Amino acid sequence: MPTYTHDGLTFDYFDAGSGEPVVLLHGFPEDADSWDQVATRLQAAGLRTLAPEQRGYSPGARPPRRGDYTIDKLSGDVIALLDAVGLDRAHVVGHDWGAGVAWDLATRHPRRVASLVALATPHPVAVLASSWRSGQLLRSWYMGFFQLPWLPERTSVRVLERTLLRTGLNPADAGRYAERFADPRELTAPMNWYRAIPLSLLATDRIVRVPTTYLWGNRDPYLGRVAATRTAEFVAADYRFVELDARHWLPQNHPDAVASAIIDRVPGVPRRTGELATP
């Protein structure tokens, strides 16, 4: 597996296919393998996929302090990947926390983002704006819990697999993530993404000005309709909202829909929804 360095850290990443580049950013508690089904479909359509193991997940990129996980640092890791492989810009796709990084990239570094496809996670300002006017605050209760030291790690290892299965993830991936984080100490770095939220500063211009598609599952237990629909208010470019009859785990459970939405954003690549089966 190739690696690149940034901020004194070493990141693993997958690089496959050829053509227009697409960066795939995983969420919590996932890894780059969560994109396997989507990536093979994109490669079959003539695209190049780059899927990094992000900060806190890659073995050589697990700094100990929560201040090492602010959103600008997470976005900087992706810019460093583009620089390392010699790309001026790429189509950026993110799921869950990866979508949070993708939103920030599109506002902080718009010239490096050819298009944005966000899965599950709405625009961050839409989430904030909806928190007091909907049930979003209750849906996000765990973010407050994760601010505590050590207790969330010890609690989560006991319920992680059960929680993932209950929220719709397939048993194979749920078991793999639970095994990966069986030691509570392994969860500290991924949870520092949440703990760094109070330290993170959003980009000065919070409006996205690149072509954007947002996919949302209408049975997502974590992210509600109000924030999903308000996301359109924060995109000043061609915008598409795709509502799926789905839960949270879109890359794993709905790879055809995800791949089609990405392909639709790449000029010159015809939409081939019926031909997206893995080779």
Average residue-wise pLDDT? 94
The percent range for helix content is 25-40%
User: How would a textbook summarize the main sheet?
Assistant: 8 strands, mixed
Q: Considering the protein shown, what is the CATH homologous superfamily?
A: Alpha/Beta hydrolase fold, catalytic domain
Strand content: 15-25%
Q: What top-tier CATH class fits best?
A: Alpha Beta
Q: In one word, what is the shape?
A: globular
Could you say what the CATH topology is called? Answer: Rossmann fold
| Class per helix and strand makeup | alpha/beta
Number of helices: 12
Supply Rg.
Answer: 17 Å
Weakly predicted, low-confidence segments: 273-279
With strands numbered from the N-terminus, the spatial order across the biggest sheet is 1-2-4-3-5-6-7-8
Structure, described:
Helices cover 39% and strands 17% of the residues. It is built from twelve helices and eight strands. A hairpin with a 2-residue loop joins strand 1 and strand 2. Strands 1-2-4-3-5-6-7-8 form an eight-stranded mixed beta sheet, sandwiched between helices. The chain has one domain: 3-Layer(aba) Sandwich (Rossmann fold). It starts with a strand and ends in a 16-residue tail after the last helix. With 279 residues, it is of the alpha/beta class. 46% of the residues are buried.
Lay out the secondary structure.
Blueprint: E1 3-6, E2 9-16, E3 21-25, H1 36-44, E4 48-52, H2 71-84, E5 90-95, H3 97-108, E6 113-119, H4 124-130, H5 136-139, H6 141-145, H7 151-166, H8 171-180, H9 184-195, E7 212-217, H10 225-230, E8 239-244, H11 250-253, H12 255-263
Parallel strand pairs: 3-4, 3-5, 5-6, 6-7, 7-8
Antiparallel strand pairs: 1-2, 2-4
Helix pairs in contact: 1-12, 2-3, 7-8, 7-9
